[in-house]
Amino acid sequence: MMNTLPSCSKKDWNTPNTAKFMTPHTHSPIESLSQKTSWRLGLSLSLTLAFVVVEVIAGLLGNSLALLTDAAHNFTDVLALGLSWYALRKAMQPANARKTFGYHRAGILAAMVNSTTLALISLGIFYEAWQRFINPPEVNPGILVGVGLVAFVINAVTAWLIKEDSEHDLNMRSAFIHLMGDVFSTLGAVIAGVIIFFTRWNWLDPFVSVLIGLLILWNAWGILRETIHILLESAPRDIDIKKLVGEMNAVPGVKGIHDLHVWSIDQEKRLLSAHIVTDDVSISCGAAIQGELTELLAQRYGIAHATLQLECACCNGGELFCKMTEGQHTHA
Length: 332
What we know:
With 332 residues, the protein is mostly helical.
């Protein structure tokens, strides 16, 4: 069934009813770097850094791997929070001649670094736990429980401070996972300390460390997989390309689509470029078609920036997806 071409006279184009087609590309503001977010990050970083020293001393005195493990993880949290803060500040810088997309992917790179350090920490935990399984040392359960309770409260507060921003920002989520790893680490240390106090099962200390390491590794892999997905210019996971193409083809005036690309700059900023085949129409009529497509993409798929190149049906078309060869752009 042929799509009916919309009425595109100059008079109609200037009326309020077609004003929606004139909507320009809009870029969502970077709200995560508000003063409130910066203050929360700074407070979380300060609390974590101060407690690292306390927990290292307690872990050495109590001879607890769980506390020392948590202290090491806390220290990486300091680095992670600092890196996340820097990435957020960097992302605010405007686009320029060298960085035409701006610095929005600074957060993605920070998330990749943070998730990689989480994986390395997990491997270190497994190694140290194995050593203690072979020769389990005496653990002071009193220090383990006491310091663990204080650490649990501090870690829970710092994680809560940035939880809201982590829901829609991969960079902040990686920092949040760092902090939540500490929450579970300290909770596990407390539980292990209580059991050791009554049973003297010192092997529980490295056993809890292994469980914590597995949890950290699982979350790190989830973040790392998502950052790789974005850096490879992959289409967002929640977008059904076949459905998207079908809805675009259903827009009146569209005769075909080729050279389609859908990707994202970070977790929220989605982009699309495509060649749109139409009849040999006027500029105003083509603008109306572009407006319909832009509105469709923004409302249905959250694609706020779409670059649409119109071509008349008499032009040579191409395949839906194109391949890039050395030094040139050719159709598949």
